[in-house]
Amino acid sequence: MGTKHSDSNLDIFIELDKPFYYTGEYVQGKVHIHAKAALSYTNLYLHYENKEYCRWSETYGRSTVTYVGKKQNFADEFILHQFPGGIPQGQYTFPFGFQLPAGLPGSFKEGCCKNFKIYYPVTAFMIDYQNPNSKPEFKVCATVIEPPRFPNQTNVRLKNIGNPKTCCCCDQGTSAIDVLYDTTTVKSGQPVRLTINVDNRQCKQNVKNVEVTLVQNKFVQSDYGVKRHYSVDKYLQKAAGVAAGYEGLVHAELDTSSVQDSAALGTIVANWYTVRAQAVVAGCICCPCCACCGNNYPTVEKDVYIDASSQLAHGPPQFSAPLDWSPAPTERIVYRPQTPPVFQPNLGLPLINPHYQGLQTESFELRQYQY
User: Which of 105, 95, 102, 83 is nearest to 38 (CA)?
Assistant: First the structure.
């Protein structure tokens, strides 16, 4: 739904032509105006921008600290129409178009209070220079999908060797997995297929099952540089294991139909996904990541790009014209900025820079801030 701040004699509405757009794409739409009387507003503007916002709280003993981050990646506006001497009474429709800058992050929002979000407000407003305090406007948020920042990788192969130990750190040999990812880019609802070779020939314990997990990652950063990385398991699939002293091949298809949010990599807010494959060793095994025992369960992880545009059943509000609606026709105004903005991505995010090791993955219970 859009939001409006209008006087009683002027109605403004924005209608976008599509439920979502990809970065770099042209946004087209119409601004509808109903002036119920002659008014002194002279200029109709269209303003569009991209913002990131995050807010979360953490409790330390009896104290609660709230962190806030705000960032504007770009903003621009242009005059859509001018009314010399003021807008006459009547009905008007003004078609418009503008191009989204390429390379921007996609739309994202998290939490019942929308604690983490990347959003694209589009605002139509009118100006009365004789009364600058009066600024009727209507605002909608365009939904933007971020294309993959790197070409799709097919048949990606990753290996890992685990050294499982039972209680008292008794060595049980080695167990290894060799995982082939068929792709790193999918649309929501398409499976990620994995071929997993489990080599348990040098291990004294059974691999009781092979777990394939879809992990959602969220990164936020406050204005003062406080960073948090949240991860949550979205979907888990288990396959049969392999007995001690044997080798086995597992084929897995990871369901992505539960993914509602596309990958969106902003500077202070980001959302992306990881597919993890792990051979779970049976028996009384020490902690899988015990500092003294090392890596017990053989595990590999690969970041993947998921486009969830297929989940967008509802777009922006559509204009419901009154029965007597007969606007004066006008030509479409297509705005082209002289200097398009350049977005600087966060190179500390693994999906942008796979070789960056500075961001440690941790699992947190997400604390929603209550307003």
Answer: 83
Reduce the DSSP state of residue 31 to 3 states and report it: strand
Q: How far apart are CA 127 and CA 121, in angstroms?
A: 19
CA distance 18 to 231: 32
For residue 21, pLDDT over 90 is answered with yes
Residues near 369 by beta carbon (within 8 Å), at least 6 away in sequence: 55, 56, 57, 66, 111, 113, 115
CA distance 93 to 369: 41
Q: Is the pLDDT of residue 359 over 50?
A: no
Residue type, 275: V
- Kindly state the average pLDDT of the residues 237-265: 90
Instruction: Centre a 10 Å sphere on the Cβ of residue 333 and count the other Cβ atoms it contains.
Output: 17
Q: What's the pTM?
A: 0.85
Pair 146, 52: CB distance under 8 Å: no
Please write the tens of the pLDDT for every residue from 184-230.
999 988 999 999 999 999 988 899 999 999 999 999 999 999 999 99
Look at residue 367 and tell me whether its pLDDT is greater than 80.
no
CA–CA separation, 77 vs 45, rounded Å?
A: 7
**Other residues' Cβ atoms within 10 Å of the Cβ of residue 109:** 16
Please say if the pLDDT value at position 97 is more than 60: yes
Number of H helices, E strands in the chain: 0, 24
What pLDDT score was predicted for residue 165?
67
Question: What phi-psi label fits residue 37: left (phi over 0), alpha (psi between -120 and 50 degrees) or beta?
Answer: beta
- Residues 307 and 187: beta-carbon distance below 8 Å: yes
Residue in the block written with tokens 């109709």 = 44
Label the pairing between strands 137-142 and 116-127: antiparallel
β partners of residue 285: 166
Query: DSSP letters along 92-105, please?
Result: EEEEEEEEPPTTPP
C-alpha 129/C-alpha 224 separation (Å) is 38
